[in-house]
Amino acid sequence: MTQRHVHRKLALPAITAIALLVSQSASSGTAKGHLPLTTVADVPLTGGTTRWDYASLDRSTHRLYLAHLGDSVVTVFDTHNRKVVADVANVSDVHGVLFVPQLHRLYASATGTDEVVAIDPDTLKITARVPAGNYPDGMAYAPEVHKLYVSDEHGRTDTVIDVRTNKRVATIPLGGEVGNTQYDSVSRHIFANVQTREQLVEIDPTTDQVISRIDLPGAEGNHGLYIDPSTRLAFIACEDNDKLIVLDLATRRILSSFDVAKDPDVLAFDSALGWLYVAGESGEVSVFRVQGHSVSLLGTSMLGPNAHVVAVDETTHQAYFPLKSVAGRPQLRITKPSQATP
Asked: What are the TM regions of this chain, as residue ranges (predicted)?
């Protein structure tokens, strides 16, 4: 995610603003000051007290890949033994990381050099570097066509990379600043947030053409994105007005909107438990329960400084939050659902 300074809209007249606030609170059911989580451990991480970004988990090898943006390294963490295995250097201003099980390969977006870096997870060596526009960020993989889609945030496009040749094969104009990009395994299409147009854009990977644009009324800075194929729901985090929008991809209709952690960024979903995590730049985290198309807020509270990144293990139900600085050093906060949680 890019931290951006935005100009908020002018305040409504007092009576209208109060009425709107009451209405929003009632509809969202925000439960401030509570999270149904227990901290399992705080584990020291390597490097400086600089910014972290996306995370990606390979459950088969118990490895968590963390983008240590401020240090320009990909940190490899062993979730079984709870220790750092290695730091992969020379990934300049690394933002996105994505482990692709089908390829047994790790990708990282190096925003400092505007490229995507391919990494062999066995040797932890960089095997390829591919140009990826202007400020590459989030990534998604479409397995049927062997293509990686990269959010070119400032370039207002999605960059398409053929993973068989590690070559850029297309650049798709999206008409606005691009947030996160995700793959939907049901439609086999790619979806990307166009955060300056308040739209979710649908791309057909067979043609690399935009085939639809879904307007998102009420969205401001729709950046974070997670798609759950089992429910056909898209969860969209709006960083400029602290909202989570729940979109039904089958009908293209917004089902609900919630107040969430301030400055929401990364989303993670425990499909086995039906829990959605929304991590915020503010250090707040929101947790939701998803049962079919029913989405309810379990709680929102401060989790840790700058806790805007989260990954979750669906087998252990443990969630991982890299924190910029705790007691003067970077830490990985590991949580699990509280025993009292139904």
From this structure: none
pLDDT of res. 1: 54
Q: Which two tokens stand for residue 96?
A: 């996105």
Give residues with Cβ within 8 angstroms of 168, minimum separation 6: 130, 131, 132, 159, 160, 161, 162
Tell me: domain 35-337, CATH 2.130.10.10, correct? yes
Q: What is the pLDDT of residue 7?
A: 31
Q: Is 18 exposed, middle or buried (0-12, 13-18, 19+ CB in 10 A)?
A: exposed
In whole angstroms, give the CA distance from residue 112 to residue 307.
23
Token representation of residue 223:
């950046």
Cα(275)–Cα(180) distance, rounded to whole angstroms? 20
188, exposed or middle or buried, with CB in 10 Å at 0-12, 13-18, 19+? middle
pTM, two decimal places: 0.90
What's the CA gap between 220 and 157, in Å, rounded?
19
Task: Give the Cα separation of 332 and 41 in Å (integer).
Answer: 8
pLDDT for the residue 31: 52
Q: Which two structure tokens, joined as six digits, stand for 255?
A: 């089902």
Amino acid at 156: R
- CA 231 to CA 250: how far, in whole Å? 9
Residues of the chain with pLDDT under 70: 1-32, 340-342
